[in-house]
Amino acid sequence: PNTKYLKDYTAPAYWIDHTELTVELFDDYTDVTAQLRIRRNDELDAAGSLTLDGQELELLSVALDGNTLSAEQYQVGDESLTLSGLGDQHLLTIRNRIYPQNNTALEGLYRSGGMYCTQCEAEGFRRISYYLDRPDVMSEFTTHIIAADGQWPVMLSNGNKIADSVMEDGRRRVSWHDPFPKPCYLFALVAGDLRVLEDTFTTMSGREVALQIFVEPQNIDKTEYAMDALKRSMRWDEEVYGREYDLDVFMIVAVDDFNMGAMENKGLNIFNSSCVLANPATATDSTYLRIEAIVAHEYFHNWSGNRVTCRDWFQLSLKEGFTVFRDAGFSADMNSATVKRVEDVQMLRTVQFAEDGGPMAHPVQPDSFIEISNFYTVTIYEKGAEVVGMLHRLLGEEGFRKGSDLYFDRHDGQAVTIHEFVAAMEDANGIDLSQFKLWYKQAGTPVVEAASSYDADAQTLTLTLRQHTPDTPGQTDKQPLWIPLALGLLDAAGNDMPVQVEPAEAWTASSQVLHLREAEQTFVFHNVSERPELSLLRHFSAPVKLEYQQSPEQLLFLLQHDTDGFNRWDAGQKLMLHWIEQARSGSFSLSDAEQTALVSLLQDDQLDKSMLSYLLNLPSESYVAEFSAPVDPAAIHHARETVRLAIANTLLPHLAERYQQLQSPVAYQPEPQQMAQRALKNLVLSYWALVSSDGVTAAQAQFEQADNMTDQMAALLSLVNYGSDEQADAALASFYQQWQHDTLVVNQWLSVQAGSSRRATVASIEQLLQHEAFDWRNPNKVRSVLGVFANQALVSFHQSDASGYALLADAIIKLNGINPQMASRLLTPLTRWKRLIPELSALMRAQLERIQSQEDLSKDVYEVVSKSLS
Ligand code: B3K
Ligand code: ZN
Half-sphere exposure of residue 749, counting CA atoms within 13 Å on the CB side? Predict the structure, then answer.
C-alpha cells in the first residue's frame, strides 16, 4: 500500500461545479448516474487529463457532452477512471452499478436493517460513483432517488426537497437540491420506512427551520431528548459563536449499523442509533450526556466543517479539533464545567497519551498516512481540541471570538488548512503564533518538570520549569513549545494568595498563566509572605505530563482546599495513584487524616454531587498503566482493588445512611442535578456492595425496583461484580429476559459481561460471540463485546497463556474481511505491546505477527500492524 504525504498536495486538475446524481434503487442492485459539470482549473497547466476515484464500481457507460464514449476513449484502473484530451468545460455523464446489500464495510451506500443509508467521509463517495473524491472539490448537488412506489416511503438527501412524483413507469422519484457547494464527503442519501419527530426552530434572524428526526418505527418514543439537545445546540451556536443555521430543514436519521458515532452530512446528519435514541427506561445518564454532546458536535460542524471545510485530509483536525472544542464548551455550559473538564482530561490522559507514546503517534496535523480512516484518532480530535483550547486561553474569550468570526467570514465556502485557522486568530488579535503552531506539527506528549524553592527572608518563591517532548516514530529533536501554564499559590488556610511574578510579560492579571516558551525558564514570585502550596497546571491548561514532587500530605491538602475544581480532583487522583503504588509494594494503609478526608467528602453537602463522585473514584486501570513502566496489568489490578477495598471499608459506617439520603422521590429526568445525585448514589452503592452483604441486598432491591436504566444498570453492575455467582447469573438472565427486544439495551448487557474483570474469561467472551444477540456485521455489537473486553477487562485480556490476545487476533482477522475499519480499531490494545512486562509483550507481538502474515490484509489493518511491528 502507498503512503500519502502532505507535502505532495497539488490542486485538482478540474473542478466539478455541479453534480446531478440519479440513484435508482432495485432489490438486488443500485444504478447510479452522475452528470458532472467539470471545468478546468486555470491555475494548473493541465494537459486535459482527469482521473476520477472509484472503488468496487461496475462501470456501465461514460458520455462526454452527450456522446457516449467507446471503451478505448477512457482507462479504467482498479480504483480509477481516467479521461484525457479534455477541453476547458464539459458535461461528463457516468453510469455505474453497485450492490449496497453486500456492502459490509459500511462505507458508501449500504443497507442497515430495513433501510438504505450512506457514509462518505472520508473516502466513501468513490464507492457510490466515479468522482474527484477529495474535500477541496466543492460542488452544488442535485440528487434524484428512484424506487418502486410505496417501497421506501422516506427518501432523503441533502438540502431542500424540490420534487416528488410517480413517473410513467410507476416508480417514484424524489429530488433534492443543496444550494451550498460541498465536498462529496458531505453527501448523504437515506431510504426507508421511517417515522419522524418534527419540530421547528426560529433562528436569530427570524427564519423558521423545520427539524426532523427519522427513526425506524419501534424507536419513535426515543427521539425527544435528541430534539431538545438539537434546539439547545442551535441556540448556543448563535449566542456563543454568532453562527446561524442556513437551510430550511435540518434532518437527523438514526441507523443501527454505523462505524462511528455520527456524521455531519449537510442538512442530513446520520447517527449511530446508540448516539441519538434514548428514553429513561432504556438509556443511562451517561448515554444522555453522550447524545447531547454528539448532537451538538454534528450540528456545530455545519459551520466548522461544512461552510468552511478542509483542503485535504491532513487538515482533519481543522474541523474535528475545533468542533470538539465547541461541543465541549456547549456541554460545559449545559452541565458542570468542572466535571466536563475532568471527563475530557481523563480520556485524554489515558487514551491520547497512550497513543502519543505508541507506534501510531502522529501530530495533530499528520504529514503522512496510508489509510485516512486510521487517523480519526484521539490525537486529531481530543488533542486537537486541547490545542484550540490553549488558543482560547492565550487570546481570551473576546479575542478568540474575534478570531473565529474572522475565520468564518474570510473562508466561508472554502476548503482551507490549519494554517488559515491560526492566521485568522493572529490577524484578529495582532499576535504572532508561529511558535504556537508547533503544537500542530510535533507529535508526542510534552513533559514539564517543575521545581520550586521558597526564600522566607526575601519572601520570594522561585519556580523553575523545564520542558521536553520525547521522540516519536519518524520525529526526533523536538523544539520547545509555547505552553500556557495556569497556576495559583495557596496559603496555609487554603486561600489563593496574590501572585506577582517575573518575567513580567509572562503575567496576565486575570488568568495567572505563565508562558513557558523555552526549554527552561525560571519565574520568581515576589511578596510571598509564607511558604505557599503550589497548584500547578490548573484546569489542565495544556496537554502535558507535569512532573512535580508533592508529598501525600501536600496532595491531601490540595484535595481538600484547592480553589480550582479540576486541580482538587487531580490532586486526589495523584494521591490515589500513590496509594496504588504503595499497595503494589505491600506497604499501603490509609492515614487517619486520609480516612477523615474520605469520610468528609462522602458527607459533603456543598460540592456538586457529580464532582464528589469523581473525587471519590479511583483512577482507572488504564490511567495507572499510563504512569507505570513496564505495565503489569494483573499487578495493577490487584493493587487498585486493595485500595478500593480500603476506601470502601473506611466509608462503610456511613454508606447505608448516605445511600438512603441520596434516594430521590421525584420522577426521573435527564437533567444535571438529578444526574449528579444518581452518580453519587450509585458510586456509594458500588462501595457498599463491595464490602457488605447489606449493600448487595440494596443493589438487588434497586435492580428490581428501578424505573430508569441508570439505576437499573448501576444495580446490575454491583450484582454482577459483588453479588454471589447465583445472584449475578440471575440478574443477568432476568435483565436479558426483560430487554431482549431492544438492541441498544442488549448491547449494554453484553458490555457488562465483557468488561467485568470478575466475569469476563476467554471462554465467556467466546460464548458471547456465539450468542443470538451477537452479530459480526454490527459495529456496536463488536465494540460491546470485543472492544470492551480488550480495553476494560484488563486482567482477563492479559492472560499469561495469550488466550485473550489470540481471541482478539482471531476476531481482527475475521473482521478484516467484513469491515476493515472495525478490524483496525480493535487493533489498538495490541499496539501497546512494547510497554508490557516482557513475558506478555512477546506473546502480544506474536499475535501481531500472526495477523501480519494473513493474506488480503486491508490497508486499514496493514498500516496499524506494520507500524506496530516496526
Ligand atoms: N466526521 C465524522 C467522522 C467520519 C468518520 C470517517 N471514517 C464524525 C464527526 O467527527 O463528527
Ligand atoms: Zn466531528
Answer: 24
Per-domain residue ranges of the chain = 4-298, 308-543, 548-691, 740-870
Q: What's the predicted TM-score (pTM) here?
A: 0.98
Question: Which residue's CA lies nearest to atom 4 of ligand 1?
Answer: 121
Q: What is the mean pLDDT of residues 53-75?
A: 98
Class of domain 308-543: mainly alpha
For residue 786, give the amino acid letter: L
Ligand 1 touching residue 298 (CB < 6 A): yes
Q: Which numbered atom of ligand 1 lies nearest the CA of 301?
A: 11
Q: Is 320 in the pocket of ligand 1 (CB under 6 A)?
A: yes
CATH number of the domain located at residue range(s) 548-691 in this protein: 1.25.50.10
CATH fold for the domain made of 4-298:
Immunoglobulin-like (2.60.40)
From 20, 298, 371, 863, the catalytic residue = 298
Task: List pLDDT tens digits, range 187-216.
Answer: 999 999 999 999 999 999 999 999 999 999
pLDDT digits 0-9 by tens, 450-481: 999 999 999 999 999 999 999 999 999 999 99
Ligand at shortest distance from the CA of 122: 1
Q: Which residues contact 440 (CB under 8 A, 6 or more apart)?
A: 317, 363, 364, 365, 387, 418, 422
Asked if 138 and 235 touch (Cβ cutoff 8 Å), the reply is: no
Quote the CA–CA distance of 688 and 675 in Å, as a whole number: 20
Output DSSP code: residue 129: S
In three-state secondary structure terms, 610 is helix
- Which CATH number is 740-870 given? 1.25.50.10
In this structure, what C-alpha cell is assigned to residue 197?
Answer: 419527530
Pocket probe mutation, ligand 1, options 125, 259, 320, 382, max atoms within 8 Å of Cβ: 320
Q: Which ligand has the minimum distance to the alpha carbon of residue 318?
A: 2
How far separated are the first and last CA of the chain, in Å rounded? 16
Q: Is 502 in the active site?
A: no
Q: Contact, 189 vs 228, CB < 8 A? A: no
Nearest-CA residue for atom 2 of ligand 1: 263
Q: Do domains 548-691 and 740-870 have the same CATH topology?
A: yes
* Residue 303 in grid coordinates: 459551520
* Alpha carbon of 266 to ligand 2 centroid (Å): 13
Q: Assess whether pLDDT exceeds 90 at residue 500.
A: no
Short-list 643, 659, 572, CA closest to 609: 659
Q: How far is CA 400 from CA 13, 412, 430, in A?
A: 36, 18, 12
Write the DSSP string, 266-324.
Answer: TTEEEEEGGGT---TTT--HHHHHHHHHHHHHHHHTTTBTTTBEESSGGGHHHHHHHHH
Q: Atom 1, ligand 1: which residue's CA is nearest?
A: 263
